[in-house]
C-alpha cells in the first residue's frame, strides 16, 4: 500500500525520494479507473508486489458510527482518514458468496461511538505466507495509515461506512516468491470481498499537527525494524518510505524553530503551541533520523536486489550524516553490485577513516582488489589472442 495523496503535502511529496512511488505506481486514489467503477493499484506484501483491481459493489447497508452524544450518525459521504479506526471484514469470494449478512433486519446498524472508539486496533503479525494479511471472515479493527494490511487499507481509504467491494489480486514483477502457501489463499489470482462496517473520524493532512506527524514517523521507523528482523523486507521498505514521506513534511516546522533560536523557542513553551514545539525533534535529530531512514531503506533495497536504488538511498544518508558507518558500507556494497569498483573503493576507504581496522571494510577492499586483478587478467588474455 502507498500513502494516499491526502496524507502528505503535494510540494513535500515532490521532494521525497521517489523509490516507493516509482516502485508502486501511484494508481490508488488518482489511479486507473474505467466505466465499470474499477480502480487498480500496486500493493506491498511480504513476498513482493501485487496488482490489485477493486470494483465497488455499492452500499450493502448504511452502517454508521455515531460521533455525538445523541447517537446521530456520521455523514454518509465521509470516508476514513489518517488515524481512523476502521471495522473491516475480508473474505475470499467463495466464502463471501455463502456467508450470511450480519446487518440488522432493516439493513441499518448503528454502532455507538462509545462502543467503537473504546476499542483499539487489533495487533497481529504480518504473515510471510499470506497476501491479504488479515484474519479472513472475521471483523477486524485496523488503524488507517499504519500499513498493517496494505491491500485492505488501500481499499478502505476510498470506502464509506457500510460499503462493500470486490478485489482481484495477482503477483507482478520479480518478487522473491509469488507462490501462496496459505491453504486459504492457494488459488491465483485471488478474488476477495472487503467490507467497511464503520470507522471513527480521522484527520486530513493539514489537520495533523507536526507533533502528531513526528509520532507517526517514529512509529513507522520502529515498525520497519520489526518487519525487517522478521524477514518481511518489502514491508520494512514500505514502513521506512512512509516515515520519510511524513518526515519531509516536518522540514518547514523544524527550520522555523531553528530560525527562531532557542530563546524564542523557550518563550513559546508558555503558549498554546509550546507543548507541540517541545515534542518536535531538534534540527540535529531530524537530520539524524532522516539519514537513518535512508540508510535502512538502502539495506532493504540491497536485500531486494535493487542496487541502483540502494546506491541512491545510501548516498543521501552519507550526505546527511557523513559519519554514519552503516551508510558508507551499504553505499560500497551497492557500488560493487553495479560494478562501480572505484566508487566502492572510495566508500570503503571512507568507512576505514571513520572506523579504522573495520573487518568488513578491509574484507571488501580485498575482494575489490581480487575482482580487479581477475578483470585485468581476462582483459590481457583477450588482447593477447587478438594479436597472436
TrEMBL record:
<feature type="region of interest" description="Disordered">
    <location>
        <begin position="260"/>
        <end position="281"/>
    </location>
</feature>
<feature type="repeat" description="TPR">
    <location>
        <begin position="325"/>
        <end position="358"/>
    </location>
</feature>
<keyword id="KW-0802">TPR repeat</keyword>
<dbReference type="InterPro" id="IPR019734">
    <property type="entry name" value="TPR_rpt"/>
</dbReference>
<dbReference type="InterPro" id="IPR011990">
    <property type="entry name" value="TPR-like_helical_dom_sf"/>
</dbReference>
<feature type="compositionally biased region" description="Basic and acidic residues">
    <location>
        <begin position="260"/>
        <end position="278"/>
    </location>
</feature>
<protein>
    <submittedName>
        <fullName>FKBP prolyl isomerase like</fullName>
    </submittedName>
</protein>
<dbReference type="InterPro" id="IPR050754">
    <property type="entry name" value="FKBP4/5/8-like"/>
</dbReference>
<dbReference type="Pfam" id="PF14559">
    <property type="entry name" value="TPR_19"/>
</dbReference>
Amino acid at each position: 500500500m502507498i500513502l494516499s495523496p491526502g496524507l502528505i503535502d503535494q510540494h513535500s511529496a515532490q521532494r521525497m525520494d521517489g523509490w516507493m512511488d516509482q516502485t508502486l505506481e501511484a494508481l490508488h486514489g488518482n489511479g486507473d479507473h474505467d466505466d465499470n467503477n474499477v480502480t487498480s493499484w500496486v500493493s506491498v506484501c511480504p513476498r513482493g508486489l501485487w496488482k490489485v483491481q477493486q470494483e465497488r459493489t455499492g452500499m450493502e447497508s448504511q452502517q454508521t458510527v455515531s460521533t455525538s452524544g445523541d447517537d446521530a450518525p456520521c455523514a454518509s459521504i465521509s470516508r476514513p482518514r489518517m488515524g481512523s479506526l476502521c471495522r473491516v471484514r475480508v473474505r475470499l469470494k467463495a466464502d463471501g458468496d455463502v456467508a450470511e449478512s450480519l446487518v440488522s433486519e432493516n439493513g441499518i446498524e448503528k454502532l455507538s461511538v462509545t462502543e467503537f472508539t473504546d476499542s483499539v486496533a487489533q495487533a497481529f503479525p504480518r504473515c510471510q505466507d499470506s497476501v491479504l494479511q488479515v484474519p479472513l471472515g472475521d471483523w477486524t479493527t485496523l488503524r488507517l495509515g499504519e500499513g498493517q494490511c496494505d491491500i485492505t487499507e488501500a481499499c478502505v481509504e476510498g470506502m464509506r461506512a457500510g460499503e462493500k467491494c470486490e478485489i482481484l489480486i495477482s503477483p507482478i514483477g520479480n518478487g522473491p516468491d509469488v507462490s501462496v502457501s496459505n491453504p486459504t489463499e492457494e488459488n491465483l489470482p485471488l478474488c476477495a470481498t472487503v467490507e467497511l462496517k464503520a470507522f471513527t473520524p480521522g484527520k486530513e493532512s493539514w489537520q495533523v499537527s507536526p507533533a502528531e506527524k513526528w509520532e507517526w514517523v517514529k512509529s513507522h521507523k520502529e515498525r520497519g525494524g520489526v518487519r525487517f528482523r522478521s524477514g518481511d523486507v518489502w514491508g520494512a521498505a514500505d514502513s521506512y518510505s512512509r516515515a520519510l514521506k511524513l518526515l519531509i513534511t516536518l522540514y518547514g516546522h523544524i527550520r522555523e524553530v531553528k530560525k527562531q533560536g532557542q530563546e524564542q523557542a523557550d518563550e513559546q513553551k508558555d503558549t498554546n503551541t509550546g507543548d507541540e514545539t517541545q515534542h518536535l525533534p531538534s534540527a540535529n535529530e531530524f537530520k539524524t533520523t532522516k539519514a537513518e531512514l535512508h540508510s535502512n531503506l538502502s539495506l532493504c533495497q540491497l536485500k531486494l536486489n535493487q542496487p541502483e536504488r540502494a546506491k541512491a538511498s545510501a548516498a543521501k544518508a552519507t550526505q546527511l550524516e557523513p559519519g554514519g558507518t552503516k551508510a558508507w558500507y551499504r553505499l560500497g556494497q551497492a557500488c560493487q553490485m553495479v560494478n562501480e569498483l572505484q566508487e566502492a573503493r572510495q566508500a570503503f576507504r571512507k568507512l576505514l577513516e571513520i572506523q579504522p581496522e573495520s573487518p568488513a571494510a578491509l574484507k571488501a577492499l580485498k575482494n575489490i582488489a581480487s575482482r580487479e586483478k581477475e578483470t585485468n587478467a581476462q582483459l590481457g588474455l583477450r588482447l593477447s589472442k587478438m594479436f597472436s
